[in-house]
């Protein structure tokens, strides 16, 4: 335990700049257990920007110097994906508390090394920035599933295609939308929160079969269209569809159970339809005359199903602030973590399984062979000819 979290932000881009901005805002409601004490970025231009934004705040152009400076006792990593594990391991080994950005890493073997470093330094906190876990809407959905409000899972479907990105987005950096620089496309950049929520709420699948499209309508080599089927065992199935080339976009999360259905529309509206008895029980009690009455609209469906609807609103940035506050409360007071860093491997595993299924054109185990995945990833990195092979 420490008296206060003295946070250093590594990476002063869009995300790091947003987090730093919370510490300047009077409306951010960060608690007394955390303060921003330093910023690090290897871009020389960022030094002047930090000096203008935060006069007198220590600035580092080398993250190792920050870790060993004694100035910080915790960091958040808003850096390219491959650096998440590298910097995270270096921090944990030095007793620096880690709030890692999503995804935890690009491939499971790397995340396993990060988790091992956390296990070897149990006195050091390892959390991950899964801010959607603080969203009251998804917290309620998880509670409903934990309470079996709609019975046992039968099918889950999430269509999340609201990530439209034009070519100019990909042109802004040479590493973006590459295998060697970013580690993939929509599965590692835009959709990690949904991959986490899907498993957090519904559990881990056993098998994955995915069809991915690469560079649809864009001059990129990574996936920007995903259609995946999930097998949870015991007859429960799922589907996950995402892309970055749908200008209109859809966000619909539907969970079908043995005793009802949960629907989330646009990550704002929650509709819960609960049956008065398990569907199989209702089915057994009805003969054809009952069915005809239903077909003809002669039955009050309220005797079979109840429906509630609720709208949720989110203040911009509040979920991120909630994660920062929870991280600080855990470090200072031992409060339970909303998102333990070790959970970060789950979404990475699912993304890896989708990639591998597409590359091999067959169904694969959810728990992918890490060596096989890395070998296939390195084939694609080598073909690009611009980045180092990963280990």
Automatic annotation (TrEMBL):
Boundaries of every GFO/IDH/MocA-like oxidoreductase domain copy: 138-262
Entry's Gene Ontology molecular function annotations: nucleotide binding
Superkingdom to which the source organism belongs: Bacteria
A Pfam family the protein falls into: GFO_IDH_MocA_C3
Domain Gfo/Idh/MocA-like oxidoreductase N-terminal: 6-124
Entry-linked PANTHER family: D-GLUCOSIDE 3-DEHYDROGENASE (PTHR43249:SF1), UDP-N-ACETYL-2-AMINO-2-DEOXY-D-GLUCURONATE OXIDASE (PTHR43249)
Protein name (record): Gfo/Idh/MocA-like oxidoreductase N-terminal domain-containing protein
